[in-house]
Structures are given as structure tokens and as C-alpha cells.
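Materials and Methods. Structural model of Hydrolase. The 264-residue sequence of Hydrolase from Streptomyces olivochromogenes was retrieved and submitted for structure prediction as follows.
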Amino acid sequence: MRASLLQIDVNDGESVDSRRRRVAALVREQAGVDLIVLPELWTTGAFAYESFGTEAESLEGPTFEVMAKAASDAGTWLHAGSIPERDADGTLYNTSLVFTPSGDLAAAYRKIHRFGFDKGEAVLMGAGGELVTVRLPETTLGIATCYDLRFPELFRGLVDAGAETLVLSAGWPERRRSHWTLLAQARAVENQAFVLACGTAGTHADVPQAGHSIVVDPWGEVLAEAGAGEQVLTVDFDPGKVATTREQFPALKDRMLGLTAPRR
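The predicted structure was written out as C-alpha cells:
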């Protein structure tokens, strides 16, 4: 299976419409791969909080239309990263879109863990409440977004739902890049799954981005890693390695579930 992670440069000097057109062209250039992955909130920038409301769109808004067409033109599965979605009731969500090779919407995932503590995304956006998996011919994807990477129970839930390849879109800051690499490898090892983690490059809202999109195999080995700038990271991997790894080293079978806190 061949996947391309499009590590998009997101900066304040490019309009949202211009970036949509540019990214759609990049998607079309990847025709022939099995899966394309884009970063989190690449239209606005993950830290451009003031743009969330002004650039928010409905689920089937401009980015949906452009990316659906690009997926169809390329004839490939497309995880189109995430958009600031405005629901019918006015609530904003950080929502990822996954398209089939014919351009149909296969799934939408609203980010569960919102970053910012008492500001930014955490207060401007609503939290999703559902795990999302997508069945491809070769593997089952488990979908997550950026800050989700710090919460292993989410990925355990995705594995229990059948995920074999964990796909993460992110706008991860450069100052915490070491966490990005460490956690991507940890999620791969503990879940015995591939991790495809695609981040942004550039600087937006004065926050330099980490870049360094990464693909990790079920043993925690890094198969490919991007640099800091805009880059298309393409990698071949064997989805069958997940079943082999879980059979050879059946650690998932030894989980102790339903543990209770000690009495005090």
C-alpha cells in the first residue's frame, strides 16, 4: 500500500482560497497512490483562533467541494485534514473529512480532545463524542486529530473498533516536536498498528510549526519522516504486518480491563 502525507506550509500570507486551490493541485499530483493525508486546519492554521469563526464552513462547504473533486480526479482515498466546521446550531467543530476514490464522503470525525486549556480551541469549539474508523480495501483506518495523540485510551478504542492504521492530522508546534515523535511511536507500539501522522509546516499566528510528518510501523520503527518545510512524504507499507505483529507478539491479548482504584 502506498500513502502520501502532504505536509502543507500554512502561513498568514496566503489566502484560504489560494491555499485550497494549491492543495487540490497537490492532491491531484498524487494520482496512483492508495491514500493521501492532509494536516489539521490547513485552511486557516490550527493556532489562528481569530479565523475559526470567520472561515468556518458547513460540512459540505467550499473545502468539502474542492477536496471531493480532487479525490475523484486523483482516484484515491483522501483524508482531507480538518476544517473549522459550523454546525446548523452554530457550534464550531474541528472536523476531519475522509473521501473515497470516487469523491464520496466516507466519514467525518469531530475532534474529541480540544487543545488550549482555558482558551483557543478549547473554548471556541465543541468536542466530538464518537470514534471513527474507515474501512479501505487493504486496511481499516482509525481517525484522530493532533492533541488526541496525547490520550492513549482514544487509540485503544479505535483498535477495539478494528483499526489497523492510525491516521492523525495535526498542526503541532515546533516547540513540542520531541513529544510529537515520541507519542507517534508510542501509539504505534502499544497498539501494534501503523501510525501515519501528518503535520503542517510554516508559521501561522506567530506559532512555528513542527513539520516532521512521520510514518511508524507496528514495532515502532520509523519508515519515513519529513523535514521542517513543505514536503510530500510518500511511503510504501504492508498492512498485513499488523496481523503478523499481533500474532507474533500478542500483547493486546494480555490487557487487564475493568481495573478498579485501590481502597483508601
